[in-house]
Write a structure and sequence with these properties.
202 residues; 3-stranded antiparallel sheet; 5 helices; globular
């Protein structure tokens, strides 16, 4: 795994587990603080653990992540997705919100049929997904519970189409599966989420 993919994986794993705060808490200083912590987590992932095997913990606050999205997330957030926010509900339950450009997806996926749902959607609309995130022993999994597009409830397959389209890469041309188990990067064992913060355990 390249360093760039590792850094992206660290950021993705942390942000999926965190809530956002109000825009008033956004600052460049906190964005820089988050970037430094990601660098520390990434570096620990390529160095040998201490002889005592004591878990190494890095605490990341909600305001740091939100600030990073605002000031430094442009290179990681896919084109066509803006204003991403993650809200923690409790007991592992999280909600992701973003404004998504549906035009590119609908052009690719529409088959031209009268009843093709992709003929009916387009433009930039808010998309939400709510579910339960679990991390343990270096593995994570997200169980989707509900999703909306423009405030209208949609089935999981439609949300999967959006996720697949915007998560495509050279190594994963089909994109990411929503409910597929995944390895946490950088030797992260788990991410403990508490009120207003997450603790990354390595």
């Amino acid at each position: 795994m390249t360093r760039r993919r590792t850094v992206f994986g660290v950021i993705l794993a942390i942000t999926v587990a965190l809530a956002t705060v109000s825009a008033g808490d956004v600052s460049r200083q906190q964005a820089d603080s988050f970037a430094k912590k990601v660098a520390i987590i990434t570096q620990r992932g390529v160095t040998a653990p201490p002889p005592s095997s004591t878990a190494r913990r890095t605490t990341v606050s909600e305001s740091e992540v939100n600030s990073w999205f605002a000031y430094r997330g442009g290179d990681v957030i896919p084109s066509g997705i803006t204003q991403p926010k993650i809200t923690i509900i409790g007991n592992g339950r999280v909600m992701a919100l973003a404004t998504v450009d549906l035009d590119a997806v609908s052009k690719q996926r529409s088959n031209g049929g009268t009843f093709d749902l992709w003929n009916l959607v387009g433009g930039r609309v808010p998309v939400t997904a709510t579910g339960v995130l679990q991390t343990k022993d270096g593995r994570g999994q997200f169980e989707l519970q509900s999703a909306t597009v423009g405030g209208v409830p949609v089935p999981k397959p439609l949300l999967q189409e959006l996720v697949s389209y915007y998560s495509r890469s050279e190594n994963h041309p089909g994109g990411v599966r929503l409910d597929a188990p995944f390895d946490l990067p950088a030797r992260i064992k788990q991410i403990d989420v508490g009120p207003g913060q997450a603790v990354v355990v390595q």
